[in-house]
Amino acid sequence: MLRKIKFKEFKKLYRKNIIRDFPKNERPNLENFRKRILTNKEEVYIFEEEGIEKGYCIIAQLENYIFVDFLATYKESRGQGVGTKIIKELIEKYPNYNILLEVEDPKFAKDEKEKSIREKRIKFYEKSNFKMIKELQIKYSDLVIFKLMIFSIKEQNIQEIREEIKNFYSKIQNKKTLRKIEIKDI
Predict the structure, then answer these.
(1) pLDDT-derived band at 180, boundaries 50, 70, 90
(2) Could you tell me if 118 and 132 are in contact, meaning their C-beta atoms sit under 8 angstroms apart?
(3) Given this model, what pLDDT does residue 22 score?
(4) What is the pTM of this model?
């Protein structure tokens, strides 16, 4: 079951899990998260089964989409279908929204191991009926290149998606970081 948490509980999650689960160049610092959560720009959910925490997700509700900014399963719970359950609950919680998320582009992995991990993530989302949006790419400075994936309940418009993503980034990023983000047509 997904349980929404407040910032006080999020601090513990950040220090214990997010720092371990996401590389520094892919996650905001704690203060940036604080601002995003306290101003309701993003919501944080813990996934629990039988009172045991097993994973989490951080989402933003956009005008016509839900954007999954972070999703992770705790190391000790991996391989148990937890990620799939999180996605299923998000789909049930937001039945009238298409759901977007970013995945690192395997073509730009630094080595074969990283490429394999990225490809496995994409396959995981594809099993949950997400499709790659082939027309768009997101470049974060020279650090990471992302592709977008979508769980679609209604027809999507690439221009609308581009605008939603731009609006999302402009809400959560400072101006300096925002200048480093490029949404490209490919």
Answers:
(1) confident
(2) no
(3) 87
(4) 0.91
